[in-house]
Predict the structure.
Amino acid sequence: MNYVSFGTADVKVSEMCLGTMMFGERCDQKRSSEIMRAALDGGVNFFDTASAYCRGRTEEIVGRGIKEYRDQIFLASKVAGVDAKRIAESIDESLTRLGTDYLDLYQIHWPRKGMRVGEMMEALDKVVQSGKARFVGCSNYPAWVLERSNGYARLHGLARMVSHQLSYNLLERGVEVEVLPMAKTENIAVMVYRPIAMGILAGKYIPGQPIPEDSRARTDERIVKWLDSYGEGVLRLKAFAEDRGVSMFDVSVGWVRSSPAVTCPIIGVSSLSQLEKSFKTFDFTLSSDERAEVSSFFDTEVKEVSGGNYGPLRRNLDLVAE
Ligand SMILES: NC(=O)c1ccc[n+]([C@@H]2O[C@H](COP(=O)([O-])OP(=O)(O)OC[C@H]3O[C@@H](n4cnc5c(N)ncnc54)[C@H](OP(=O)(O)O)[C@@H]3O)[C@@H](O)[C@H]2O)c1
């Protein structure tokens, strides 16, 4: 396992972050505990969860699973809400469910309409000052809202957000516009969720073949919709991987990791065998030519009509030197 610096936080975490969203949903306590233990044994020391997953049950499952080795894990959770009251209440609820007295990373799950960034940053700072979380971060933020939030924190001497959790994969590329350039420039750690598009980009579903009984497509309609739209690209990705003797999973996660703005992919698994396959993916790298070739299988880069160089500028990871 590789270990990477986590933005401006003075810590190193495993490059693989274990996603726990399926715990309580597709994995019971026993299987979830086995996956977490095996992840730790494989060198993974970074786990991500959220208060919203299974209405808190996932946090309980994670808490029971890591009880014996809590201090070896960089533990991240999320609050569903942006106001001071929810932030203050939710951290205590999460700590109780997780059976711990601190989180390593506490993230705002989604921004909300009409949010007050000053109130939010003051509340997050209180969480840090009270020792309930070591660092704070966000998820699913437009670039300018994160910049504004950290601008407020900087001005008032409060804890700043050190990380941004985003969906980024060969099908979902919106964050290439301004979000990833902002994160790289500001040294915000980028945690990528859904790196294999819920299994589509790892060969869980083969276009034209029946949907497997034991799969998330039975409950998540986006999977069938995306398969219909991108089936041809999935088959080209499969052929590309086969030609190189690697898995589709390796190519898709390698594509995410090859962005210089990305800190770590969050790998969500629902079985031990999926977990084991994910360890070796961190030895695989894609060259920039291969990245461009794989990107061409899917017509998913955000398109815009713009005069001059404005489009490329909004995607440039090195536009501002410091
Ligand atoms: N911040 C947010 O808003 C947000 C949103 C979503 C997720 N997340 C985080 O990101 C994590 C990952 O998200 P995700 O689970 O949606 O994304 P994902 O990693 O793209 O998909 C994981 C799914 O892919 C399948 N899979 C895993 N390994 C495989 C392999 N080797 N071969 C074939 N299929 C494989 C499994 O599906 P089956 O279970 O069907 O086998 C697994 O549940 C979550 O656990 C959570 O921590 C955050």
